[in-house]
Design a protein that fits this description.
Mean pLDDT: 95
Helix content: 25-40%
Strand content: 15-25%
Largest sheet: 8 strands, antiparallel
Number of helices: 18
Number of strands: 26
Bound molecules: fructose -6-phosphate
Radius of gyration: 25 Å
Low-confidence stretches: none
Shape: globular
């Protein structure tokens, strides 16, 4: 959510900054801007809209500076206009700031600063912060930033430059990620490694409450109390190739098609087939506590929450541990009961989702063992958790989560087997599931061949504005996920429901030609799903079904059938996900939507 890039080096910074924020555009894309120190002065260029709009107006004004900051925005305070775009200048025009996060006490600070004679030209909380820094500036920029940050409530990742200190950038974080790329005679601060990896793979990750001061030739990490912090250089683990389109039209499609590989990476080294055990090294230091677990609470948002719902089925069936799944945003505010033996698992692709992070901290404060199921290595949730399991599915750039979802399902399956084998799950059953899990990448490859068929079906439904997605058991969460995918990228209204719930109200929605996607893969509830299908057909609804190969009956009940291989029921969500992702993708493309940058959305929701 919003992207920051700041460069101090010896090269002209304009291109580096723009290329950097382009790599972060999936995090926010309603306005963009940059500020550089040029000829000893601050030069600023900003534009509403995509970064391409900024590129159109860029000229000599900012072309020469070798120190600068840039931002791509997802609006929180103030409309996405040019005057609300970052960077923001203080009212003397000598200090510029880019900011991710929210300054919660900005209104009070603004009133006070106005009473001290400060002037404002935007509606943003960020402009308040730069004016506060300016008010507190008496010749030492680091000192002014430190003092200002002690006054603010809320979250921030910031980078600040000033024409008073032309070769210096001051950056700081609290609740919004920042890292420093350490190159040869250049340093780059960014909110995401994707903006850095082109220049260097050596980086230092800032923790909450830490700052960094960079110049072209040096960097110093410190606290808000000006105490130097020695930090290790870490290696950025992904390559440039992983964050480029590589011939695909969209990142979402690339990531859907990457799933055989991303899943292989998730599973690598974690399956001991002979023993029928899952190997989860990230849980080693808490294995004694896990042996005592009495109850599991999964906290997550959106797609990760849907993975959590599948996790509930897996953990209860395979490990026989009572499991609940909570929206992180609700959990954190409802005085949750955490008893001894409670394990809380936060699932998050980004590892930065504000609600999930806050819920995890709440759970820890109440004494729960906190586990993370996270993709981004070194992210805040990964660091906050007592232990955890990385997804290792590679960077996910498409705003709609796809490959992270299937990797989350795989990790939850491994976790259920890991815990189950320490309880009642027998070796044979575990071996069968693990064997099938190892075959899953190849099976997904087969399912991807459905893409053309699904595109044709999607094209025949483009005029339909309301869809239903229905499933039961393990695949009820997949119905929710199918509906979420469709609505977030194609803006078609869709609802996902447990199939049997339909007749308790939503069946009233069904009219002639309304697409209803049934997940009717083989399993314990197949017959019941067929009955639900008939209820829809009797009312003129158009049935599309995801079903198992060799199901000869389903064709009679559905207008179109997307077939997936037959696998043990607990693993079927891994395959069902794929046609649902493709269906959403092809509908969005058919309707001319910006698949990777859906309106009003951004990757990684770092505000409440
Ligand atoms: C939907 C989607 C979101 C995220 C949610 C949580 O396609 O991507 O619903 O799943 O915002 O994000 P993470 O997993 O980063 O915590």
């Amino acid at each position: 959510m919003c992207g920051i890039v700041a460069y101090a080096g010896h090269k002209p910074s304009q291109r580096i900054l723009v290329e950097g924020i382009k790599r972060l555009e999936y995090r926010g894309y309603d306005s963009a801007g940059l500020a550089v120190i040029q000829d000893g002065k601050l030069a600023l260029q900003r534009a509403a809209g995509r970064i391409s709009s900024l590129e159109e107006i860029l000229d000599e004004t900012t072309a020469g500076g070798t120190v600068g900051i840039a931002h791509t925005r997802w609006a929180t305070h103030g409309a996405p206009t040019t005057s609300n775009a970052h960077p923001h200048l203080d009212d003397t025009g000598r200090i510029a700031l880019v900011h991710n996060g929210i300054i919660e006490n900005y209104a009070a600070l603004k009133t006070w600063l106005q009473s001290q004679g400060k002037h404002f030209s935007s509606q943003t909380d960020s402009e308040v912060l730069v004016n506060l820094i300016s008010f507190l500036y008496h010749g030492n920029l680091v000192d002014a930033v430190q003092k200002a940050l002690k006054e603010v409530e809320g979250t921030y990742g910031i980078a600040v430059i000033s024409s008073h200190h032309p070769d210096t950038i001051v950056a700081a974080r609290k609740g919004s990620p920042l890292l420093v790329g350490v190159g040869e005679n250049e340093h780059i601060v960014a909110s995401d490694a994707a903006a850095i990896v082109e220049h260097t793979t050596q980086a230092v990750y800032l923790e909450d409450g830490e700052m960094v001061v960079i110049t072209p030739d040096a960097f110093r990490t410190l606290t808000l109390d000006n105490i130097t912090v020695d930090k290790e250089l870490e290696n950025i683990e992904f390559s440039l190739q992983q964050i480029e389109l590589g011939g695909y039209d969209h990142f979402m499609l690339k990531e859907i098609f990457e799933q055989p590989t991303s899943l292989e990476n998730t599973l690598r080294g974690r399956i001991d087939l002979q023993a029928g055990r899952a190997i989860l090294g990230g849980l080693e230091n808490v294995k004694e506590q896990l042996a005592q677990v009495k109850r599991i609470i999964i906290i997550a948002c959106g797609t990760a929450w849907h993975a959590g719902l599948v996790g509930e089925f897996l953990l209860e069936e395979l490990a026989r541990i009572p499991t609940e799944v909570e929206y992180a945003s609700e959990f954190r505010y409802r005085n949750p009961i955490i008893e001894p033996g409670t394990v809380v698992i936060a699932i998050s692709q980004s590892g930065e989702t504000a609600d999930t992070l806050a819920a995890l901290s709440e759970a820890k404060d109440r004494g729960a063992l906190a586990l993370g199921v996270v993709n981004v290595v070194g992210s805040t949730i990964a660091r906050e958790a007592d232990a955890g399991i990385y997804l290792h599915c590679g960077p996910e750039i498409g705003v709609a989560s796809t490959k992270a979802f299937t990797s989350q399902l795989a990790v939850l399956t491994l976790l259920a087997i890991y815990l189950g084998r320490r309880r009642s799950l027998d070796q044979d059953q575990a071996q069968r599931l693990l064997q099938s899990l190892t075959e899953m990448p190849a099976r997904i490859k087969n399912v991807l061949c459905l893409s053309d068929q699904i595109r044709k079906v999607a094209e025949s439904c483009l005029g339909c504005d309301n869809w239903l997605f229905l499933g039961r058991g393990y695949n009820y969460p997949l119905a929710l996920e199918g509906a979420l995918k469709l609505k977030e990228i194609s803006y078609i209204h869709a609802e996902g429901l447990p199939a049997a719930e339909m007749k308790h109200g939503p069946i009233a929605l069904i009219n002639k030609g309304m697409p209803t996607v049934f997940i009717a893969s083989s399993g314990s509830q197949y017959e019941k799903v067929i009955s639900n299908i008939e209820e829809v057909r009797a009312r003129g609804g158009m049935v599309l079904a995801v079903a198992t190969e060799n199901d000869t009956r389903i064709q009679r009940h559905a207008e179109a059938v997307f077939t997936i291989p037959d696998v043990p029921e607990p693993l079927s969500p891994l395959l069902v996900a794929v046609p649902l992702q493709l269906l959403a993708y092809h509908c969005a493309v058919g309707r001319g939507c910006a698949v990777d940058k859906p309106r009003n959305l951004a990757k990684s929701v770092t505000v409440e």
